UniProtKB/TrEMBL annotation:
<feature type="binding site">
    <location>
        <position position="191"/>
    </location>
    <ligand>
        <name>substrate</name>
    </ligand>
</feature>
<feature type="binding site">
    <location>
        <position position="306"/>
    </location>
    <ligand>
        <name>substrate</name>
    </ligand>
</feature>
<feature type="domain" description="Amidohydrolase-related">
    <location>
        <begin position="61"/>
        <end position="409"/>
    </location>
</feature>
<dbReference type="InterPro" id="IPR023512">
    <property type="entry name" value="Deaminase_MtaD/DadD"/>
</dbReference>
<keyword id="KW-0479">Metal-binding</keyword>
<dbReference type="InterPro" id="IPR050287">
    <property type="entry name" value="MTA/SAH_deaminase"/>
</dbReference>
<comment type="function">
    <text>Catalyzes the deamination of 5-methylthioadenosine and S-adenosyl-L-homocysteine into 5-methylthioinosine and S-inosyl-L-homocysteine, respectively. Is also able to deaminate adenosine.</text>
</comment>
<dbReference type="GO" id="GO:0046872">
    <property type="term" value="F:metal ion binding"/>
</dbReference>
<protein>
    <recommendedName>
        <fullName>5-methylthioadenosine/S-adenosylhomocysteine deaminase</fullName>
        <ecNumber>3.5.4.28</ecNumber>
        <ecNumber>3.5.4.31</ecNumber>
    </recommendedName>
</protein>
<feature type="binding site">
    <location>
        <position position="69"/>
    </location>
    <ligand>
        <name>Zn(2+)</name>
    </ligand>
</feature>
<dbReference type="InterPro" id="IPR032466">
    <property type="entry name" value="Metal_Hydrolase"/>
</dbReference>
<keyword id="KW-0862">Zinc</keyword>
<dbReference type="InterPro" id="IPR006680">
    <property type="entry name" value="Amidohydro-rel"/>
</dbReference>
<comment type="similarity">
    <text>Belongs to the metallo-dependent hydrolases superfamily. MTA/SAH deaminase family.</text>
</comment>
<feature type="binding site">
    <location>
        <position position="98"/>
    </location>
    <ligand>
        <name>substrate</name>
    </ligand>
</feature>
<dbReference type="Pfam" id="PF01979">
    <property type="entry name" value="Amidohydro_1"/>
</dbReference>
<dbReference type="GO" id="GO:0050270">
    <property type="term" value="F:S-adenosylhomocysteine deaminase activity"/>
</dbReference>
Length: 437
């Protein structure tokens, strides 16, 4: 008998491994935050003596979701400006509100609110593209989640920094500060082609090479952006980034609509990653990402919610379903993005995009124990021919019951263990009063 920390016995284990297995009546053994075994449950009890055993009859274990793109603190702006085109939403609503309200305290409170919502919907890793990233890091650490922080760089002054160089210097400092933290990565997050001139992009390219750090950027969010850049700079955004040298296998391109065949060739040749945010693209009428076409070219496509001010939730289960549904009419094929591939997009593909796939993204021996359990035993999930089909096409986030990061339980039967839910609600309501008052 080997002594371990946790043994989880489940009706299904869906590892999202290369073979795309679905294991029935299996158990996951956890020691020191790592998965040390996945084996049939009838063997587990005689092999392992666990400090903590959970019997999750009727539940499936999946890798925790990896939400590759968002603006956590913007949760405090949820529902403030809906039903608008992207540039109206940004110019007339978000940027003025950010100028007035965004601070260290705003980011800490907003990021905790976002983390609580993400944990309760099965997300274990998030990427955050926002100002005052040290406050976001503190919130991530308090929540117990894993986070990639990509603080932004823009040509114009923000509440966080006055110049592009000042933004870059702050980011470089944070990269140093968190370099030894296993659960926090800091990378560069230049905002978009239309807010970043060549000079800061060249400096970001040089620093990202020097420090071995990825770059995440909104690119090709709308046809208007592509046409505007073509008129202003004589190049499509993807070609401009390629010319600057930013397009490589550490580049995370958010949105990617309005793509030409040459754009797709450039991304494929560079090995860059596409972070697809279907619900934000739908709500802002931004455009469609050709997921099936990209995947057929071997491009890694991962999933993100974007911020709660343009989505308006941070629900990766819902995002995955939307992604699966929308990929089909976009490809004009019902075969495009089948259920298991949609689940892969929300988990292992995200880990690959964030260069974290050696540690997370699938349930495999040796990986960190970042796990979510989902209940499939109620009426709405009956009968079950294929649990993956139900997870993608017929489940909602209230079915997420338990969540672990690094083997530590962050959600226990839908109760948050690291975040004070009442305090988060109270803070959010206080911010709403100040903002609207
Ligand atoms: C890049 S840091 C935050 C910066 O981005 C703005 N923002 C939020 N969502 C989007 C989006 O979908 N496209 C472009 N810019 C976005 C946010 O308001 C911040 O100013
Ligand atoms: Zn965004």
């Amino acid at each position: 008998m080997q002594t371990i920390d946790t043994l989880i016995n489940a009706r299904w284990v869906i590892p999202v491994n290369k073979q795309r297995d679905v294991l029935e009546h299996h158990s996951v053994a956890i020691l020191d935050g790592k998965i040390i075994d996945i084996l049939p449950s009838d063997q587990a009890s005689s092999q392992y003596s666990a400090a903590n055993t959970l019997n999750l009859e009727g539940q499936a274990l999946i890798p925790g979701f990896v939400n590759t793109h968002g603006h956590c603190a913007m949760s405090l702006f949820r529902g403030m400006a809906d039903d608008l085109e992207l540039m109206t939403w940004l110019n007339d609503h978000m940027w003025p509100a950010e100028g007035k309200w965004v601070s260290d305290e705003f980011v800490k409170d907003g990021t905790l609110l976002a983390a609580a919502e993400m944990i309760r919907s099965g997300t274990t890793t998030f990427s955050d593209n926002y100002f005052f990233a040290d406050a976001a890091a503190r919130a991530a650490i308090e929540s117990g989640m894993r986070a990639q922080l990509c603080p932004p760089i823009l040509d114009f002054p923000t509440n966080w920094a006055q110049t592009p160089d000042e933004h870059i210097d702050l980011i470089a400092e944070l990269i140093g500060k968190y370099k030894d933290n296993d659960k926090i990565k800091v990378i560069f997050g230049p905002h978009a082609p239309y807010t970043c001139s060549d000079e800061p992009l060249i400096r970001i390219k040089e620093l990202s090479e020097q420090l071995g750090v990825p770059v995440q950027m909104h690119v090709h969010e709308t046809e208007v952006e592509v046409q505007g850049q073509l008129d202003e700079r004589g190049n499509r955004p993807i070609r401009r980034l390629k010319n600057i040298g930013l397009l490589n296998d550490k580049f995370q391109a958010v949105h990617m609509t309005a793509l030409s065949d040459e754009d797709i060739d450039d991304i494929a040749e560079a090995g860059a990653h596409v972070l697809h945010c279907p619900e934000s693209n739908l709500k802002l009428a931004s455009g469609f990402c050709p997921v099936d076409k990209l995947q057929k070219r071997g491009i890694n496509v991962a999933l993100g919610t974007d911020g709660a001010a343009s989505n308006n939730d941070l629900d990766m289960l819902g995002e995955m379903r939307t992604a699966a549904m929308i990929a089909k009419p976009v490809a004009q094929s019902a075969v495009a993005l089948p259920a298991y591939e949609a689940l892969a997009m929300a988990t292992i593909n995200g880990a690959i995009a964030l260069d974290w796939d050696k540690e997370i993204g699938s349930l495999e021996v040796g990986k960190r124990a970042d796990i979510a359990s989902i209940a499939l035993d109620d009426l709405e999930s009956q009968p079950i021919y294929d649990p993956v089909s139900h997870i993608v096409y017929a489940s909602t986030r209230d079915q997420i019951k338990h969540v672990w990061v690094d083997g530590k339980q962050l959600l226990n039967d839908r109760e948050l263990t690291t975040i004070d839910k009442a305090a988060v609600i109270e803070n959010a309501q206080q911010w709403q009063k100040k903002i609207r008052g």
